[in-house]
Automatic annotation (TrEMBL):
Coiled coil: none annotated. Residues 1-31 form the signal peptide. The keyword Nucleotide-binding does not apply. It comes from Tardiphaga alba. Residues 258-356 form the PDZ domain. PROSITE patterns: PDZ. This is DegQ family serine endoprotease. Belongs to the peptidase S1C family.
Amino acid sequence: MIPFFRRAATVSALCAIVLSQSVLSLSPASAQNRQVPTSPTELKLSYAPIVQRVQPAVVNVYAAKTVQNRNPLLDDPVFRRFFGGQGMQPEQMQRSLGSGVMVDAAGLVVTNNHVIEGADQVKISLSDKREFEAEIVLKDSRTDLAVLRIKDAKEKFTTLDFANSDDLLVGDVVLAIGNPFGVGQTVTHGIISALARTQVGITDYQFFIQTDAAINPGNSGGALVDMHGKLVGVNTAIFSRSGGSQGIGFAIPANMVRVVVASAKSGGKAVKRPWLGARLQNVTPEIAETLGLKTPSGALVVNVTPNSPAAKSGLKVSDLVTAIDGQAIDDPNAFEYRFATRPLGGTTQLDAQRGGKPVKLTVALEAAPDTGRDEIVLKGRSPFQGAKVANISPALADEMRLDSSVEGVVITDFSETATAAGVGFQKGDLILAVNGVKIGKTSDLEKITGEGARLWRIVVVRGGQQINVTLGG
C-alpha cells in the first residue's frame, strides 16, 4: 500500500500527496537546558500547567460554503427541453472543520488556508464554547496559512506568543492542541522527530517541523507548542495510510507563521516577502562531483534576473549558495524558507562558492516590483473566455513560481464554469502566441480574442514545456 498525506482538517475531500522522504535537518542548536528525567518522582511531572495556560488561545474553526449540485443530464439539450429546470438539485451547505490559534488580543486568528478555502461563512469557537462570526483577513496559499478576525470583538482574548522555531532540536517535547474529528479540543504530546523536511510536497515553502504528537483530521491550523507554552508551529498535515495519526505529522514553523501574521496586521491583502531574482536548483551527486564537493548540498544558481537584488549583489550563474546569515543551506527549498522569513528592509548575507573559492555577498531585502500587471478577465467568444490573465511582473512571477526572466501573459485564475476551464487551460499557463500572433501583453490577447475565429492555434508553456494546441471556435 502506498502511503499518502492527509490534510489534518475534515474537509469535503482530503488531499493525498505521495511522500518523498528527506533526511535533511537544521544545524544543531545548543542543547543547553535540556535534560532527561532522573528519578521516578520526575516521571510524575505534568503538562497540565502549560495546557491550562495555552488552551484558551486555541480555537475551533468552522467554515461553510454553498454549493449547487448540478445534474449532468442538463448538459443534454433534449433533456433540458423536456424537463426544463426540474433537473436542478437544491443548493447544499458544504462544511469543513479545523483549528486555529489566537495570535492577537484584538481577535486575530491564524489557521490553515485549506480549512477556509472557498468558504462563505466562518465561525470561531473558543475553548469556553462561545462562538463568534469571523471574517477572512488574508489568505496565503503558498504557505497554506490564513488569518481571520473575529467580527465586532469587544474584549481582549488570550493569545500565544511565538517561539523562535530555529531553536528547536530533534527530541524536544511538544504538545499538539486542536479539534481532531470534531470531538472537541484535545491535547496530545510527543517530540520533534525531524526538522527541515523539504520534500513533503504540501506547500510552496518546503521546510516543515515533523512530530510524532498525534495529529488527526480536524487538527489543521491548531497549535504545536513547546514546554514554555509558546507557539513553535501550526499543524497542517499528516502522513498516513489510514487517514488517522500514524506518528508522522507536519507543522509550519512559527517563523514562517510570524511573517504571514505580520502582513495581516499591517493591513495587507497579500504577504510581502523579499525577492531574490534568481533561480536555484538542487545539487545532484553528479554536479557535486563536478564541483569537487564532498556532499551534494547547497543551492546552485542557474539564472539571475537583471536589476534584481541578486544581480545587484553580484550573484552569478553557477555560484553555489551554501549559507544565509551563517545558517547552512542544504537545498533550494531550505534557502527559500530562510530567505522568505527575513524581514523586508535591510540586508542579508550569503555565503557562496565561485570556482571553488568562497565569496560573501550582501543582498538587499526588497519586495518584488508589481508594476504593469494589467490583470483582466477575457470576455470575447474564444477558448479563453472567462480566464483572468495578467502581464508577468517580477511579483507575479515570484507568486506563481515562474521564471522571473520570462515575459508574456499568464493565466492567473478562472471560474469552474469558464470556457477556459472546460477546454483544459490551467492556472499558470503562459500564452505565447494565438493564430500566429505573438502575445506580449494582456491587451494583445484581449484584442485577438475579441475578433473571434473558427479555429484557434495556440502556443502555451506549461511547466517549462511548450505545447501547441488547435481548438475549434
